[in-house]
TrEMBL record:
Lineage: Bacteria, Pseudomonadati, Pseudomonadota, Gammaproteobacteria, Cellvibrionales
Organism: SAR92 clade bacterium
EC class name: isomerase
Assigned keywords, A-Z: Isomerase, tRNA processing
Gene assigned in the entry: truA
Protein name: tRNA pseudouridine synthase A
Residue ranges constituting the Pseudouridine synthase I TruA alpha/beta domain according to the UniProt record: 29-126, 166-268
Amino acid sequence: MISSEWQYKTNCNVPESCQLPRGLKRVAAILSYNGKDFCGFQKQNHSPSLQEQIEKAFSYVANQKIIVSCAGRTDTGVHATHQVIHFDTSADRTEENWLKGVNRELPDSISLIWINKVSPHFHSRFSAISRSYRYIILIQRLKPVMLNHELYWRDKPLLLDEMQRACGHLLGEQDFSAFRASGCQSHSAYRNVKSANIMQLNSFIIFDITANAFLLHMVRNIMGALISVGEGKNNSMWMKLLLRSKDRTLGPATAAPNGLYLVNVEYPERYQIPDLEKGPLFIESERYDR
């Protein structure tokens, strides 16, 4: 039986000098999910959360209480193709047993796609080097019936070149207070954006951004600003001025959650967490079928 004290510790980083209690092993897993029916990843009272469903499925297969930690706590309505979690367990299950058993217990909107034992020093959140998000916009005249919860729809084109120039002002380590939600609890607004790019793929506009970490609603607030640039309401230099202002009230509305995906989490090679297709599947199909 795992003590409540150790269950608390599994939400913390394990120092290199520490070992798991005898009989416990650390397991890492990658999941994908459609977030439209959930209040976000983190458990909340009286609201359906991804964490609740995931822990319930793993606990059933392990035949013991499982508590998971994740790489990034996605918000209400936000999706993931590559969410990394870890947990500690004494249960001895094969990879196949985990995959089949957990997926059988999960709702159709969540899928376990990889699982393996890892070093006891691995932590899904604190071991991460970077996280990558993707925002997808569909440009077409008529409102889509399919995928309307999985992308953001616009009936008018955007100024893509000007949006890409605006992306250049996001790079490097900066104070992102201008894109930080009021409820953000992070001690610092400084984040290091490693890449930020926008491209068009047929009728889709795809924004990709990678950083060491993100503030609450940071990607959606950036996307709202980029859309403002794409609409011609502001130019690319305005993005730089907005960043320097450190004032969220000067920015436009937060972009809708339905176009946002957590698509990758990078770790040191020693942990052997695989890189998978960023997705989502309908975007990858556009790449190869046309």
